[in-house]
């Protein structure tokens, strides 16, 4: 029948990182690498509050790992502000093994997902297509 169109786009992502006692960042990266048909590149800045316009204009989606929020609020706030300033959609990933997420993060997210690799990839593609809600 119909073959799914091959997506050769390389998605440029910012993935929240920082103090991570539960190693959620590495778990997330492993999920991303498990899908070898999805092309992506992580963009990192030493300080998102001082990164320039050219840096953010290249970003397709910001990934916020909600499990890292309590120890990295400043970075999260900088990324939320960048999302607002440059109209970058946010995909919020629930804390690993938990359903609850901070309300203020939920309000900023374009979409919220769990830890299923297929759902994460779909959320990134859909968030990038529709932009910030």
**CATH domain fold name:** Rossmann fold
Please, what is the average pLDDT?
A: 89
Task: List the helices and strands in order.
Answer: EHEHEHEHEH
Biggest sheet, in brief?
A: 5 strands, parallel
- Based on CA atoms alone, the radius of gyration comes out at 14 Å
Going across the biggest sheet, name each strand in turn. 2-1-3-4-5
Broad shape: globular
Overall tally of structural domains? 1
Quick structural overview:
With 133 residues, the chain is of the alpha/beta class. It is built from five helices and five strands, in the order βαβαβαβαβα.
Question: What's the layout of helices and strands?
Answer:
Blueprint: E1 10-15, H1 24-33, E2 39-42, H2 53-57, E3 61-65, H3 73-86, E4 90-93, H4 103-108, E5 111-113, H5 117-130
Parallel strand pairs: 1-2, 1-3, 3-4, 4-5
Question: Can you walk through the features of this model?
Answer:
- The structure is a single chain.
- This protein has 133 residues and is α/β, with parallel strands linked by helices.
- It is 37% helix and 17% strand.
- It has helices at 24-33, 53-57, 73-86, 103-108, 117-130; strands spanning 10-15, 39-42, 61-65, 90-93, 111-113.
- Strand 1, helix 1 (24-33) and strand 2 (39-42) form a beta-alpha-beta unit.
- 29% of the residues are buried.
């Amino acid at each position: 029948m119909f073959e799914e169109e091959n997506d050769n786009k390389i998605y440029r992502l910012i993935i929240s990182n920082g103090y991570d006692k539960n190693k959620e960042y590495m778990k997330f990266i492993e999920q991303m690498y498990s899908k070898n048909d999805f092309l992506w590149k992580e963009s990192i800045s030493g300080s998102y509050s001082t990164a320039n316009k050219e840096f953010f204009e290249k970003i397709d989606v910001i990934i916020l790992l909600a499990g890292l929020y309590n120890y990295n609020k400043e970075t999260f706030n900088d990324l939320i502000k960048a999302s607002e300033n440059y109209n970058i959609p946010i995909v919020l990933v629930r804390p690993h093994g938990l359903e609850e997420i901070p309300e203020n993060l939920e309000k900023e997210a374009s979409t919220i997902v769990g830890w299923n690799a297929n759902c994460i990839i779909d959320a990134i593609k859909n968030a990038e297509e529709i932009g910030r809600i």
